[in-house]
Specification:
Radius of gyration of chain A: 29 Å
Largest sheet of chain A: 8 strands, mixed
Mean pLDDT of chain B: 91
Structural class of chain B: alpha+beta
Helix content of chain B: 25-40%
Low-confidence stretches of chain B: 405-438
Distance between the termini of chain A: 29 Å
Oligomer: heterodimer
Radius of gyration of chain B: 21 Å
Shape of chain B: globular
Distance between the termini of chain B: 18 Å
Largest interface: A-B, 26 and 26 residues
Largest sheet of chain B: 10 strands, mixed
Shape of chain A: globular
Strand content of chain B: 15-25%
Number of strands of chain B: 12
Chain lengths: 716, 438
């Protein structure tokens, strides 16, 4: 198709930040230094903005690239050029399709057009009449990497970060040739690793060296003269001085061995997807369907199927939800928390005190020492506990050192930063004290009274409480304005979320310091009101309540624990309860019940398990399958109103819609976006459902319970 | 160690440079960093000499006249790190204005001779677009108040006009003719593929243009005629003689060379393109700085025990045509002597101040390889504030025949054979043989 045929599509995006295709003729440095190898057209993809604004691909960008490539094809036919190369502005080849543009494609027709536009442009690159090259100088994600895959040859920079095909994670397929070209270029096993395993493992990407090792690129050069060396290499390829070998490539027709490997790779990937996502999102399976059937596809056949798959997936809620969760929440809102005061009000934190030396306190001490790089003092009631806490930090630092995650100097520095004391007098010159002592109001108030007697007037006091009232904790303080909730999630080093709790008297400087500290700790901070259990634990508690309730009512364990699989949770409810610890879970549940009443069910059966010293409901067979001991069941008592899985799911959806509706009405957070950001970063709930509120909208729970959607603006 | 110390032979292994650009917004290196230009040269040297383990480089000495911004922060060290040399390789920055790279070579060569280094990288850079000549300088007012230096001496163009005053025989016609010759000789050298082998292609990125690859010098104006030059204005003096056509321009570029002790070169299998015989720097009145190469050359010849007639090839930097002609007149060499600047000079190719010294050496090395009848050659240049520098080199490819000599040693101080106490070329040669035998 001609560029004209895409005018309806390009017209939809008048405000697109176009990544331009600038062409320069380059005299290829022939081997031996003399010019004369010939003229090479070098295309630079550049959106004209600095490194904070990656180049992306929208319809206008693609049409411009197509025009430029067509012009080169004509020049090649006229004998004017001997090759064409594509590279990017510093740090980026292209970071992929412009997701906000793709998200905005509301009708299927536009989706098909967008998919075929990409194929159209990229096919030109692979068929210019002269060899085509892509020099992967930096970030090359999704459609950005597919540009490279469609070229005849590729080089990559050792300085290139983030190379990958994240489509399966985003809710799409690498449908601009990736799913066809990658398995043929690097073999099906490697291709599945890149397209499925990496994409679904927190969107992991490849370094330049790793991409070269897999065979994605034919040559690897260092950044200092990457463009020069890539051009010199291209000259050698064109003049036959270098012959490119691709040991991982799969040639067609497929050999029996390759065919079998192909099938095995697909089967292995299906298992992986099942394990990771419980098949709750459509994109990975669709990708694997394409890959499986694509074994015998011609390129044209595959491209046609890719167009259809892309058009289908662009229209899915899962894709839109992922863009919402990934782009709007994690990438944007997570970096600019709603309601955070002006950062200029923040006070410096040059020394930190941690009250307590238990496991949570020790994790906090490690985090503060590693990230803030300031002295951290831990206190506890006796020297043995203090020594254990400091010892934990030192051991963890040694583990990081052994794994090569930190240098010996950094290990020495971090260890030296953490010290312990049995006296809170050691807090005299700290700027920030956080407590992680026993979860009981009286204990915490006592601790803060002791701390306040020692520290300066401006020292900030933070509590890691998960269920107590911060307001009540501040009541007897001389300076109640200095207390703020700082609620981490376990394991502290892994979970990104930090709920920052503002009590009525917490002042702006304290809150600003809390947010700046969260940023320095590399946590995703969300501002929450002082309401029982804040956000994540309240939502989890409501969910646990429903599942334990149906269990107590007589629903069998398998049905109860698997009913929520469509919600794509990282762990089943009973599995998660066992991990958290049944007594802790029960304690939280009781406090929620105390705060909110009967809508938070406190399970009598769970208490029986705790009393019997059980760690959880499930036991594991040697093969990993789960069962419940008969003797465990014998401890429990059940009602006679079992539910089906479907009923459990709907009941839980409605309960969550109800609870979240109440939380928003109470002003616990600024909006449903913060609820979603919390469950994604604090509980690992899936991005393809947008966290939870877009899902509740979609399944009808929001309207059933609240009479309206959480996101009327997202409704197509 | 300090007993029985012997001076070691120093050899020039290899030299490269970036294509030179015109300074200013439209120049090829507008928007490109000076340190990046040096890095390209160092990396090319390492690529061209794969038998040299990077950790065997003992020093990186990089010259820049203005040592601020992208030419600051001890550029020899930063360039070594940016080039990916091991962190164990040290580096330093050095400055003698136009003779910066030459001084980087002579200083590190002395270190080799002394036994402090086996292998060094020496070079220079000047991005005159980023660092206009004299920018940021703060001349001491005593220069003026005590008349230590004629204020005119701080402007190089004025010193060139002064040189015309001192040597009335050097007319504008002669300088223009010499400049045209420089352009023609460079064009011929390009045509014969003699320049390109030692150029490092440099990719540059400009807004709204994309990446370009620079593989040739930007300043040359091949086909320039004396008529073209006659009409140019004389910016330094009304109705003067010095024009943009008979002087080097304002340029951006970088150079780097690899030097080694003769023993290290042999051990590591590195080529020997030239052997260092002697070097000298000398001062003159700053207001006629262009005459500097004359005393510097006389001093270097004396040390080497050579006469001007022994020199078969001259690479003299063409800051100004008048300054080259004053040198040639002094030694009785014709303006168009074929031994002088065979590949043309800075008038055609450009003169990114502190980088040029190594360009002269790289070109002399190429000519040595082309012409085995020549035994000795010199690289020489004038230096701001009244100095000159000269390095005398021996051709390892010399076939034993008598060097071509078209001029007498008019005005030369020493005659061939008068051995100075600092050692002679032949002694140096024997020392090498002894070392090798041992």
């Amino acid at each position: 198709m001609s560029a004209q045929d895409y005018s309806t599509l390009t017209g939809l995006f008048p405000g697109e930040v176009v990544t331009h295709s600038y062409v320069q003729d380059v005299q290829l440095p022939a081997v031996g230094g003399r010019p004369g190898a010939g003229t090479f057209a070098l295309i630079t993809l550049d959106n004209g903005l600095d490194h904070r604004r990656p180049s992306t691909l929208g319809p206008n960008t693609l049409v411009e690239l197509k025009d430029v490539l067509e012009a080169q094809r004509a020049r090649a036919a006229a004998g004017e050029i001997i090759g064409v190369g594509v590279t990017g502005k510093p740090h980026f080849l292209v970071a992929g399709a412009d997701l906000s543009a793709v998200k905005g494609l509301h009708d299927r027709e536009s989706g098909v057009l967008m998919a075929s536009l990409g194929h159209d442009v990229y096919s030109t690159l692979s068929d210019l009449g002269v060899p085509s090259f892509v020099f992967i100088n930096g970030v090359a994600l999704g459609g950005g990497l597919e540009i490279a895959l469609n070229a005849n040859y590729r080089t990559v920079s050792t300085g290139a970060g983030a190379i990958g095909l994240p489509e399966a994670f985003l809710g799409l397929v690498p449908g601009w040739g990736g799913v066809y070209l990658l398995p043929r270029l690097i073999g099906p096993v490697n291709a599945v690793k890149v397209m499925i395993e990496n994409a679904l493992s927190n969107n992991r990407t490849l370094s330049g060296a790793a991409a070269f090792k897999l065979g994605i690129a034919d040559a690897l050069f260092e950044p200092a003269d990457f463009v020069e060396q890539s051009l010199a290499w291209a000259a050698k390829v064109i003049t036959g001085k270098v012959t490119v070998t691709r040991p991982n490539a799969v040639s067609e027709p497929l050999s029996d061995a390759n065919s079998a490997a192909w099938d095995a790779a697909v089967a292995g990937a299906r298992k992986f997807v099942e394990d990771r996502t419980a098949n709750a999102a459509p994109a990975p399976a669709r990708l694997l369907d394409l890959l499986e059937k694509g074994k015998y596809y011609s390129k044209a056949e595959s491209f046609a199927q890719e167009d259809l798959a892309l058009a289908d997936l662009i229209g899915t809620d899962e894709f839109r939800s992922t863009v919402y969760a990934f782009l709007d929440l994690v990438q944007k809102r997570g970096k600019r928390p709603a309601g955070a005061p002006d950062a200029k009000l923040a006070r410096p934190v040059t020394k930190v005190g941690v009250v307590g030396a238990g496991l949570m306190a020790s994790q906090l001490a490690l985090l503060f020492a590693r990230q803030l790089k300031v002295p951290v003092i831990m206190t506890d009631i006796d020297q043995a506990r203090v020594d254990k806490g400091v010892g934990y930090v030192h051991t963890e630092v040694d583990k990081l050192l052994a794994k090569g995650r930190i240098s010996p100097d950094a290990a020495n520095r971090t260890k030296a930063l953490v010290s312990g004391s049995v006296s809170k007098a050691a807090f005299a010159d700290v700027d920030f004290v956080i407590e992680a002592v026993f979860e009981e109001l009286g204990v915490k108030k006592q601790v803060f009274a002791e701390v306040e007697a020692v520290v300066s007037e401006t020292c900030i006091l933070a509590t890691n409480t998960s269920s107590l009232s911060v307001t009540a904790m501040a009541e007897d303080l001389v300076h109640p304005e200095r207390l703020v909730g700082f609620h981490f999630f376990n394991p502290v080093a892994v979970m990104p979320l930090l709920e920052i709790v503002r009590a009525p008297k917490t002042d702006d400087a304290v809150l600003a310091t809390a947010f700046e500290t969260a940023k320095a700790l590399r946590k995703t901070a969300v501002l929450v009101k002082d309401a029982a259990a804040f956000v994540v634990n309240r939502i989890l508690g409501r969910m646990f309540g429903e599942i334990t309730a149906v269990f107590d009512e007589g629903t069998d364990a398998v049905t109860a624990d698997n009913a929520l699989r469509p919600m794509g949770l990282p762990m089943s409810p009973f599995g998660l309860l066992a991990l958290v610890g049944l007594p802790v879970g029960q304690h939280v549940q009781e406090s929620l019940h105390a705060a909110f009443g009967d809508r938070f069910h406190v399970s009598a059966n769970q208490q029986r398990l705790i009393d019997a010293g059980k760690k959880g409901l499930w036991e594991k067979n040697d093969d990993g399958s789960q069962f419940v001991f008969e003797e465990t069941l014998a401890l429990l008592s059940f009602g006679n109103t079992p539910s089906t899985g479907e009923e459990v799911l709907i009941r839980t959806q409605d309960a969550l819609a109800d609870e979240i509706g109440r939380m928003l009405a109470e002003g616990v957070v600024a909006g449903p976006e913060d609820i979603d950001l919390c469950v994604i970063t604090g509980a690992g709930w899936p991005m393809h459902l947008g966290g939870i509120t877009p899902y509740l909208d979609r399944v009808g729970a929001s309207e059933r319970v609240n009479g309206r959607l959480f996101h009327p603006e997202l409704a197509a | 160690m300090s007993h029985n110390r012997q001076v070691r032979d120093v050899v020039f292994v290899d030299g490269v440079r970036t294509p030179f650009g015109k300074a200013g917004e439209k120049g090829i290196y507008a928007g490109t960093r000076a340190d990046d230009l040096v890095v390209k040269c160092i990396r090319e040297l390492m690529r061209r000499n794969p038998s040299l383990p990077p950790e065997r480089v003992d020093e990186v000495s990089i010259a820049a006249t203005t040592q601020t911004g992208d030419q600051g922060l001890t550029i020899g060290r930063t360039a070594a790190l940016l080039a990916g040399l091991p962190k164990s390789v040290p580096g330093f920055a050095i400055d003698r204005m136009c003779a910066g790279a030459m001084t980087a070579v002579t200083t590190t060569a002395s270190g080799i001779g002394f036994g402090a280094y086996d292998v060094v990288i020496a070079g220079g850079v000047e991005h005159m677009g980023n660092h206009p000549m004299g920018s940021g300088a703060d001349p001491n007012p005593r220069f003026m108040s005590e008349r230590l230096v004629d204020p005119a001496a701080l402007n190089m163009g004025n010193t060139a006009e002064n040189l015309h005053d001192r040597f009335p025989a050097i007319t504008k016609d002669r300088t223009d003719a010499f400049a045209v010759g420089s352009q023609n000789k460079l064009a011929k050298a390009y045509q014969d593929g003699l320049i390109q082998p030692d150029l490092v292609p440099v990719a540059t990125l400009k807004p709204e243009k994309g990446w370009a690859l620079n593989t040739v010098d930007e300043p040359p104006r091949p086909g320039t005629t004396v008529e073209d030059l006659a009409s140019l204005r004389t910016p330094f003096r009304a109705h003067g003689r010095v024009t943009a056509g008979n002087a080097a321009g304002l340029n951006d570029g970088a150079t780097a060379a690899l030097l080694a002790s003769a023993e290290a070169a042999e051990e590591l299998g590195l080529p020997v393109k030239m052997r260092l015989i002697s070097y000298a720097f000398a001062g003159v009145e700053p207001e006629v700085m262009g005459i500097g190469p004359v005393p510097a050359t006389e001093k270097a010849l004396t040390m080497a025990g050579l006469g001007i007639a022994d020199i078969g090839l001259f690479e003299i930097n063409e800051a100004f045509a008048v300054q080259v002609l004053s040198f040639l007149d002094h030694f009785g060499i014709a303006d168009d002597d074929p031994r002088v600047n065979r590949y043309g000079g800075a008038i055609a190719v450009g003169h990114p101040l502190a980088s040029s010294g190594v360009r002269l050496m790289t070109q002399l090395a190429s000519q040595f390889e082309q012409d085995h009848r020549v035994r000795y050659g010199i690289t020489t240049m004038c230096i701001g504030l009244g100095m000159g520098g000269t390095v005398i080199w021996e051709n390892p490819h010399w076939d034993g025949t008598a060097a071509q000599s078209s001029a007498g040693a008019v005005g030369s101080v020493s005659e061939t054979g008068s051995v100075s106490e600092t050692g002679t070329a032949s002694e140096a040669g024997r020392a090498t043989e002894k070392e090798n035998a041992a």
